[in-house]
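Kindly review this protein for my students:
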Amino acid sequence: MESPPVFFPVGYLFLLRSRALGRFQASGDAARARPRGRMLSPAQALAMVPELDVADVLGATFCPTDGLGHPHEVTQAYVTHARRLGVRFEFGRSATGLRVDRDRVTGVHTAQGELATR
C-alpha cells in the first residue's frame, strides 16, 4: 500500500532583471540551481512561455523537476512509513533527551518517564 504523493514536480522559471541577475549569481543561488536546473537567455525563456515580456530580462533560471510539497502531508507520509517499519509513536509526551549506549539510541527520556527502544 503506497502513500498518496506529497511532492508535486511543477518546476519553476525565474526571470532575472537588471541587477537581480548579478545578485543572483553572486549569492550562490545560481550555483545551487545549476545541478537541478539551468540558466536561460531571455529568448529561451520567451520560447518556453510566449506570453512573457522579456524586454528588461537579462536571464532566467529554469528547473522542470523542482516542486512543491505540503508539510503536513510529508510528515504524515513519514509517520505511515515509520509505522510499517515497526515504529511506535507516543504522542502527548515531551521528549527531554536521549539515552545513548555505544553510539546507539537505546531510550528516550520524557517528562512522564523513560521509553526504551531497540
